[in-house]
Specification:
About 50% of the residues lie in helices and about 0% in strands. By secondary structure, the protein is mainly alpha-helical. It has 3 domains: about 270 residues, M75 peptidase, HXXE motif (A middle domain of Talin 1); about 140 residues, Cytochrome Bc1 Complex, Chain D, domain 2 (Orthogonal Bundle), CATH 1.10.760; about 140 residues, Cytochrome Bc1 Complex, Chain D, domain 2, CATH 1.10.760.10. The longest helix is centred in the first third of the chain and has 25 residues.
Length: about 600
């Protein structure tokens, strides 16, 4: 269960229309023959099936059905959606959100409002288990799905889709399966995702066959078809999420499929969609070197990274010139050897007294929409200035700092070389620090090496730990592969927050009172005590843990989750998004998960 951080509504609309406009205007589009192409025919057939199954379920619920029959019919409905998921998610993302999005409100930050959740995940909670008292609510949700089905039909009748768009949508679907799908993100209650993935994969295969020409049919297309068939066969033989061998299946099957997609694209001579995205267009797998583009998260083109910016940003990061009395630098509280944390329970003020929260790691912070534990700043530029000007942290004055930089010949020359201006400006200082921080995502852990083919990079215990992480421990439902943070793949346009019911410390006796994101949205109940989902990369180096630093070891953290979060310990956390059901992990299993987390340390 999730809380989603969205852009303010006006910004979101601008992004949707800009992206869709870019998709429609992409150069070198390869139009399908007409609006009755095989691809569209299949979409209409699948959507009709989805509508029929929705109506069948509505008819069934109107009677007096048993729970098992309802659940089977619901699972058939979900499968009908999976057959067209690749298209709906890509071309109609807002419709997709209200068909298969998380069962918690969508938050409009600018308007401080909540949008009611609806769709398949809400229905899943109503069906597992089913209470006849919820009959009218189930019917209401199903009627909403019929409206969404009608929207799908109308939209695909109206829009023209092209071969490059279809390929891009299919490629995104393979990455969605390789992250959200294989983690069970959209079936958190029923856990039926392993039986659903084959239908999504087969939809990819069938659509590739429909857009293929003779250029690839006996080459990449044939290889992809065989690999998908092999993956589906494996999935059908292994349906238990708690015993599934994720550490085998992901690199041997899912990574193989995403890699072969690039071969297909080259053989078919399909141009890449010219839209900046977090996942680079030419990468074969999530784990390829340079798979991710930090520039997808910058405020504008002039803020993009460069080697020169990174070098100068590092120098400034370590320079006491940024603090009021030249006594502290960014590196004082963000120590490289500790994954850019400080190893203390709470950050320390200039007067050496503890502040409210634990120092977060800067590693991989580039890949989040929202900085600080409470996500009060949108990007790293805003984050750096907020720290510098905070009277308890650095108490700097940006105008005075820039004045000092402009009187320093070395800095003035370096700024002018990069930005082509005679004098340094505040935004440039912010951008340099942010550029250095963006460079701290190196993706060179043992886990990355394993996923790239080095089978000896992880120990047997770490492999077991990864399987637990993905399955029984349910960690990957919130810490998404491969960034292991809360920024949602494969589009990476929104970042999640969670309410865990965290206690003051690992004794778990008293609930932590920090409102988190709720401080800035007092009227939004679901945001009270919510905090960003940070990356788990390098987590073994960043103790103590949680926003308050109250959990000294990873074992403390694992025991908190194993019990079911704050509610599992009997603490009051009415809006807890973490499931309060115990994980029932043994001591050995907890140890194995921790062993795996050590494999996420960069070298």
């Amino acid at each position: 269960m999730k809380i989603i951080l969205k852009y303010p509504f006006t910004i979101f609309l601008f992004i949707v229309f800009a992206v869709f406009g870019a998709l429609q205007c992409t150069q070198n589009q390869q139009p399908l023959q007409d609006d009755l192409s095989e691809v569209k025919k299949d979409l209409f057939r699948n959507n009709t099936d989805f509508l029929n199954r929705t109506n069948e379920l509505m008819k069934m619920i109107s009677g007096n059905p048993d729970q098992a029959s309802l659940q089977r019919k619901f699972e058939e409905l979900r499968i009908s959606y999976k057959k067209m998921e690749w298209a709906v998610e890509y071309f109609l993302p807002q419709t997709a959100r209200f068909i298969n999005g998380p069962a918690l409100p969508e938050i409009e930050m600018q308007e401080h409002t909540e949008i009611e959740p609806e769709g398949l995940q809400v229905l899943e909670e109503l069906f597992y288990p089913y209470d006849p008292a919820n009959k009218e609510e189930v019917i209401r949700m199903l009627k909403n799905l019929t409206n969404k089905s009608n929207a799908i039909k109308v939209n695909f009748q109206a829009i023209t889709i092209s071969k490059d768009q279809v390929f891009d949508a299919l490629r995104q679907e393979t990455f969605r399966i390789s992250s959200l799908g294989i983690a069970g993100f959209d079936t958190p209650v029923s856990g039926t995702f392993l039986t659903e993935i084959p239908y999504a994969l087969n939809a990819v295969k069938k659509t590739l066959q429909q857009i293929a020409t003779e250029k690839s049919k006996e080459k990449a297309l044939a290889k992809i078809s065989r690999e998908i068939d092999s993956s589906v066969a494996y999935l059908k033989k292994n349906t238990d999420k708690n015993t599934f061998d994720y550490i085998h299946f992901i690199p041997e099957h899912l990574n193989a499929i995403t890699s072969l997609m690039i071969d297909f694209q080259k053989q078919e001579e399909i141009p890449a969609i010219e839209v900046t995205s977090a996942l680079n267009k030419n990468v074969r797998t999530f784990y390829s070197k340079n798979a991710f583009n930090p520039n997808a998260f910058v405020p504008g083109k002039q803020f993009e990274m460069s080697p020169e910016k990174i070098k100068l940003g590092k120098q400034l990061f370590n320079d006491n010139i940024l603090s009021d009395n030249n006594s502290r630098s960014c590196a004082t509280c963000h120590v490289a050897e500790k994954a850019f944390t400080d190893g203390k329970e709470k950050s320390m003020s200039l007067s050496d007294s503890p502040l409210q929260r634990n120092t977060p790691s800067l590693n991989y912070s580039a890949f989040q929409h929202g900085q600080f534990w409470d996500m009060r700043k949108d990007d790293l530029e805003g984050q750096s200035s907020a720290v510098i000007t905070n009277k308890e942290e650095m108490h700097g004055d940006l105008s005075k700092i820039i004045a000092k930089i402009n009187t320093n010949p070395e800095y003035r020359t370096a700024f002018a070389t990069i930005y082509k201006e005679k004098k340094a400006e505040i935004w440039q200082l912010q951008n340099l620090l942010a550029s250095y921080i963006r460079s701290l995502a190196t993706f060179n852990s043992d886990f990355d090496a394993y996923m790239r083919g080095s089978k000896k990079a992880m120990t047997e215990s770490q492999k077991k730990g990864f399987n637990l992480f993905m399955g029984k421990a349910q960690c990957a439902i919130c810490h998404f592969l491969p960034l292991f943070n809360g920024t949602v793949p494969p589009n990476y346009t929104k970042t999640e927050q969670e309410v865990l019911g965290i206690a003051e410390n690992s004794s778990n006796q008293m609930a932590d009172k920090d409102p988190g994101r709720g401080k800035f949205h007092e009227t939004v109940a679901f945001l009270q005590h919510s905090f960003k989902t940070p990356t788990l990369r390098n987590i073994a180096k960043t103790a103590p843990y949680m926003h308050n630093g109250g959990y000294k070891t990873l074992k403390d953290v694992m025991e908190f989750y194993n019990k079911g979060g704050g509610k599992g310990f009997g603490l009051k956390a009415d809006n807890q998004t973490l499931s309060d059901a115990p994980l029932n992990l043994s001591e050995k299993e907890i140890s194995e998960v921790i062993d795996f987390l050590n494999a996420l340390n960069d070298h």
